[in-house]
């Protein structure tokens, strides 16, 4: 079974969707562990409830960012991870992890990149920006992770209409549903070589 590690910083609803998909067969891979960059976040509670190994590896407890990068890599290797899947992870992935998992680090973004992405564009802010811009469509983007926020090669996008009565909250809820449905499906295609990343 192909092993996938998930990295999350908050709720972990996508993490949970991936674990459920791996257990019901929609995702033919094992979620081998969860890494977070913070302690005391709902994603860690979900990991415990779901019986998935978890490690909180917080950047602020390392004097150098390179040490944090090495610690993340060590945890991934200890679990035997083959793919690294970001699901709401808010720290930039370091060069050691990117090199060791070249073409096998992916992220999901709750809008249609290249628009509405980049540093600081996460959570509610993304949907507020989409509505403020008067965009007719939003959606999800699954992309390779590179050394810059939200700039790696786009692998898959699914769009949804922005309605005139949408608020950031209502749009966020529809986009979140899309994420839970499509992230497991696209990841399944990725890990089984049906989408080529290198
Ligand atoms: C998702 O909207 C994802 O696109 C973004 O962060 C959010 C994470 O949500 N990168 P959750 O923690 O999976 O609930």
What fraction strand? 15-25%
Q: Based on CA inertia axes, which overall geometry fits?
A: globular
How many β-strand stretches? 7
Q: Give the CATH level 1 class.
A: Alpha Beta
- Alpha-beta classification: alpha/beta
Low-pLDDT runs of 5+ residues are none
What ligands does this structure carry? 5-O-phosphono-beta-D-ribofuranosylamine
The main β sheet shows up as: 7 strands, mixed
Question: What does this protein structure show overall?
Answer:
- This protein has 198 residues and is of the alpha/beta class.
- The chain has one domain (3-191): Formyl transferase, N-terminal domain (Rossmann fold), CATH 3.40.50.170.
- The protein is built from six helices and seven strands.
- The chain has helices at residues 13-24, 42-50, 65-79, 95-100, 124-132, 168-191; strands spanning 3-8, 30-36, 54-56, 83-86, 105-109, 137-144, 154-161.
- The chain has a seven-stranded mixed sheet with strand order 3-2-1-4-5-6-7, sandwiched between helices.
- Strand 1, helix 1 and strand 2 form a beta-alpha-beta unit.
- Helix 1 packs parallel to helix 2 (42-50), helix 1 (13-24) packs across helix 6 (168-191) and helix 5 crosses helix 6 (168-191).
- Bound molecules: 5-O-phosphono-beta-D-ribofuranosylamine.
- The site of 5-O-phosphono-beta-D-ribofuranosylamine has 15 residues, from helix 1, strand 5 and helix 6.
Name the descriptors.
198 residues; alpha/beta; Rossmann fold; 7-stranded mixed sheet; 38% helix; binds 5-O-phosphono-beta-D-ribofuranosylamine
């Amino acid at each position: 079974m192909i092993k996938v590690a998930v990295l999350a910083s908050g709720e972990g609803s996508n993490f949970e969707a991936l674990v459920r998909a791996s257990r019901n067969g929609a995702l033919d891979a094992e979620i081998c562990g969860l890494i977070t960059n913070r302690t005391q976040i709902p994603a860690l509670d979900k990991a415990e409830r779901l019986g998935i190994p978890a490690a909180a590896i917080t950047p602020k407890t390392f004097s150098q960012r390179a040490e944090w990068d090495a610690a993340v890599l060590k945890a991934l290797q200890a679990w035997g991870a083959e793919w690294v899947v970001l699901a709401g992870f808010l720290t930039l992935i370091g060069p050691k992890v990117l090199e060791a998992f070249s073409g096998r680090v992916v992220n999901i973004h709750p809008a249609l990149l290249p628009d509405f992405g980049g540093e600081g564009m996460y959570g509610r802010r993304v949907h507020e920006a989409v509505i403020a811009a008067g965009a007719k469509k939003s959606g999800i983007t699954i992309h390779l992770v590179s050394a810059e926020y939200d700039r790696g090669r786009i692998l898959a996008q699914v769009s949804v209409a922005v309605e005139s009565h949408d608020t950031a909250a209502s749009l966020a809820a529809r986009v979140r549903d899309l994420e839970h449905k499509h992230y497991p499906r696209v990841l399944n295609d990725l890990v089984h070589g049906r989408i080529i990343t290198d």
